[in-house]
Amino acid sequence: MHSYIEQISLRFSLLRQWGCRNSRFLPVIAILLAIIPAISSARSDAQESPYIVTYDHYLEEPGSLEVEYFSNFATQRGGNDFAAYWMEFEYGATAWWTAELYLDGQSTFGDSTIFTGFRVENRFRLLKNEHVINPVLYVEYEQISEADKIMKEIEGHDVEADHAVPNAILRQGHNHELELKLLLSSTHNGWNFALNPLATKPLTGGDPWEFGYAVGVSRPLALKASAQRCSLCRENFVAGVEMYGGLGDRPSFGLHDTSHYLAPVLAWNLPSSWTLRLSPGFGLNDNSHQFLLRWGFSREFSGFGSALTRLFGGGR
Amino acid sequence: MMLSHATKLGMLLCLAVVTIGVVMAQSDGSSRAKFDKSVYGELSKAPAKAASRQNPLESDPEAVAAGAKLFQLHCAECHGATADGGKKGPSLRAEEVQQVTPGTLFWVLTNGVVRKGMPVWSRLPEPQRWQLVSYIKSLSATQKAATAQQ
Lengths: 316, 150
What we know:
A: mainly beta, 14% helix, globular, B: mainly alpha, Cytochrome Bc1 Complex, Chain D, domain 2
C-alpha cells in the first residue's frame, strides 16, 4: 500500500513539473494515472523499439495499455531554448488496431509553461501475415496550439524560427489537423528498417496539404536471449538511428525551407516492463534546431482492457 | 468553463475510441479460444517450406531455459504461466501444438494469428523465436514425465 501511495505521489509530482496550469484535462489524467496501476497488475515485457519519431509496424498487444512519457529539449537560435513533453496512452484494441491518446505541453525557458493540446491516433495493420515490407495505416486527429513544440513529426515548411515566437502569441493560434502516414517496415536478421511518409491536412483555414518523412534503422545488441532474467543483458538494448524532416507542401513540394534531423536512438527494455529511451538529435541544415535531446520512459500494463471491463461489471 | 465545439468533439472521439477498443479487445481472442479446437486450425496454414525448417538451436543446451524466460515475458499473459491456456490464448500443451513441426511453430510465432488476436512476434529476433519453439516443444516431454510419475 505504501509503495502504491509513493507511485501515485510520484505521478502527481511529475504532473506538477509538467505544468498543466490551465489544463481542463488534469483531473482526467490524474484519474487515469491512479486507476491504471490499480487495475492492471499483470505485467508484460514488449521489446519496444528505440524510435521516438519513426514507427515500425508492430502494434500494441491486444488489451494492453502502454503509458509513455517523453521529453524534447531543443536549443533555439533567436529565442529561448525549450523543453516540450508529452504523454502517450497507447492501447491495443486488437492485434491489427492500436489506438493512442497524446497530451502535449511545453516549457520555454524565460517564458512560460503551457498545455498545448491533444492528439488521437489510430494505427491499422493492413496485411494479415508478415511480408518483406509490412504496411500499417496511421490516422491522427490533432487539436494543438501553435505553441506545440514536441516535434513528434516534422512536416511542410516547419523551421526553427517558428519556435522563436513567445508563447503568449503562439498559443493564440490553433491547429485542427488530420494526419495520415503510411508506416512501411521490414525486419531481417534482427535489423528493422522503417520508412514513414506523411501527409497533413489542416481542417480549418484552407491551408494546403503538408508533407514529411521519417526513416529509421535499428537492431538489438544481441539476438539470442540469455537463460537468466537480467537487466543489463545485451539483448535488452536496442540501438539505431532515425532521420526525419519536412518535404514542403502541395504548392511547393521539395526541400527548400524545410528542416531535417539525424538522431541516434537507444532503448533499454527492462524485465520489469519499463522501457527507457534516449535520442540526441542534430539539425542537418540552417533551418533546423542545432541540437535536440529526446528521452522518455514507458511502462506496459497487460490485461488493461479486461480489468476495465471487470471494473464496470462486465467480468465473467 | 465553456468548451469549444471542436474540444467536445475531440473528447467524444477519444471516449468512442477507448470504448470501442475495450469492447473489441474483449471480443478478440476471448475466453472461448481456450475451449475452441478450431483455433489450432491456424497451424495447418503454415506453408510446407516454412513447416519443414529445422530448429537451429535444437542442440543448444540453453535454448529451453532461455525460451522459458521469453515465454514468461511475452506469452504467459495470454497462454497462461504454465502454457495450459489462458483467457485469450489456447493451451500450448495440447496435442495439436505438440505434434506439429518446429518450423510450423516458428511460422505461427512470426506471423501471428492477427485476425484471432495473436500479434506477430517477428519483433523478437529469429534466435529468440527459435528459443521459444524449443521451450514449447519441451513441454510435451515435461508432460509425459509428469504423467509417468503419476
